[in-house]
From TrEMBL:
Function, in words: Mediates influx of magnesium ions. Alternates between open and closed states. Activated by low cytoplasmic Mg(2+) levels. Inactive when cytoplasmic Mg(2+) levels are high.
Main localization (coarse): membrane
One Gene Ontology cellular component: plasma membrane
Keywords (A to Z) from UniProt: Cell membrane, Ion transport, Magnesium, Membrane, Transmembrane, Transmembrane helix, Transport
Domain of life: Bacteria
Transmembrane segments: none
Known catalytic reactions: Mg(2+)(in) = Mg(2+)(out)
Entry GO MF terms: cobalt ion binding; cobalt ion transmembrane transporter activity; magnesium ion binding; magnesium ion transmembrane transporter activity
Protein name (record): Magnesium transporter
Keyword Cell membrane (UniProt): yes
Location within or outside the cell: Cell membrane
Organism: Mycolicibacterium fallax
Membrane topology: Multi-pass membrane protein
Family: Belongs to the CorA metal ion transporter (MIT) (TC 1.A.35) family.
Length: 361
């Protein structure tokens, strides 16, 4: 069992180390169970009771494993669990503070897998949406007789995964690494589901950009691209972690579990390639939207220039006759005023018709 170093206290540097009342691990524990031959055993409700149950079964020559589920534990709670299961301090620190990239590390005989979870946020329209994709994290500690899962985020629940495994039982008979596969498979399947929903938003945005009329909201495209980039940062690094599992740590897993993990890797690559494609497509849409905005501005400037040219005719005539010279053309003719007005109107109409014919108006 590896040694465990205590994590730094909560106090800030230079402040006195005030001890706060410890919060029981049960406050952060979502579920706790011991499994023997694929079946859940009744009894243990705490992680220490599960450890004691494992010892009793080991003394009887029976192989079982415990699955402890935690949700956003603090340092003291995580230290307590780590001390009983022999978890390494560096991995425990990552599990407490979260905000990790997907990765896979081996600490002695314990695998530490970090998964980023994603969730699609429903919205009426992209223009009014503030967030499209939200992320969370799942940390999985896997040993020869235990699985400890640490979740961050409200959408990353594993209750459905546990129920499915307990109903089937065949996969649970493969041991703790089969639980790791089920969690990874659940997360990656969610990637595919979320990417399909994001694709619908991208299709709507593409249709809006290339529609004949209407204004293009470039801000909405930038927001959508930002969400896709966040999705890409959450999904893409997991490919390297799962590949590392197949190449470097294959001796820890049975052949059957390796087959399952290869299937997860295939789905993961598919999801990562989709997201990379969405990123490239949105880059093209940004360029197309900027080009469309430029064309709209050119059209507006042509319209403004055309109306200015039309307005210049009466302005010029009014400026000439407003100089109040004594000798001016047709100044003493009784019909000079209506004649000038008709001439101005006729010239304006001719200019309007010319601009209209050239699609400036």
């Amino acid at each position: 069992m590896p040694s465990f170093r205590a994590l730094p206290p909560h106090g800030r540097p230079g402040e006195p180390d005030t001890q706060r009342a410890p919060v029981p691990v049960a406050e952060a524990m979502v579920d706790c169970a011991v499994y023997l031959d694929g079946k859940r055993l009744p009894g243990p409700r705490t992680h220490r009771a599960a450890v004691q149950k494992l010892r009793e079964l080991r003394e009887d020559g029976r192989t079982a494993f415990a699955w402890i589920g935690l949700h956003e534990p603090d340092e003291q709670q995580m230290q307590t669990v780590a001390a009983d299961f022999g978890l390494h301090a560096l991995a425990v620190e990552d599990a407490v503070h979260a905000h990790q990239r997907p990765k896979l590390e081996l600490y002695d005989n314990t695998l530490f897998l970090v998964l980023k979870t994603v969730n699609y946020v429903p919205h009426e329209s992209i223009e009014n949406a503030r967030e499209i994709v939200e992320t969370g994290e799942i940390m999985v500690f896997v040993g020869h007789d235990f699985v400890v899962t640490v979740r961050h985020g409200e959408h990353s629940g594993l209750a459905a995964v546990r129920r499915q495994l307990e109903d089937e039982q065949n996969q649970l008979r493969l041991g703790p690494f089969a639980v790791m596969h089920a969690i990874a498979d659940h997360v990656v399947d969610r990637y595919l589901a979320v990417t399909a929903l994001v694709e619908g938003d991208i299709d709507d945005m593409e249709e809006d950009i290339f529609s004949a009329g209407g204004r293009t909201d470039v801000t909405a495209i930038y927001m959508l691209k930002h969400e896709v980039l966040e999705l890409r940062r959450a999904v893409a690094p997991l490919t390297d972690a799962l590949t590392k599992l197949q190449n470097d740590y294959r001796d820890l897993l049975s052949k059957e579990v390796l087959r399952y993990m290869r299937d997860v890797l295939d789905h993961q690559i598919q999801a990562a390639e989709r997201i990379a494609g969405y990123d490239d497509l949105l880059t093209s849409l940004v360029q197309a939207a900027l080009a469309k905005v430029g064309m709209q501005q050119n059209t507006d400037m042509r319209k403004i220039s055309a109306w200015v040219a039309i307005a210049a005719v009466p302005t010029m005539v009014a400026g000439i006759y407003g100089m109040n010279f004594e000798y001016m053309p047709e100044l003493d003719w009784p019909w000079s005023y209506p004649a000038v007005l008709c001439t101005v109107v006729l010239v304006c109409v001719l200019i309007y018709a010319r601009f209209r014919r050239n699609d400036w108006l």
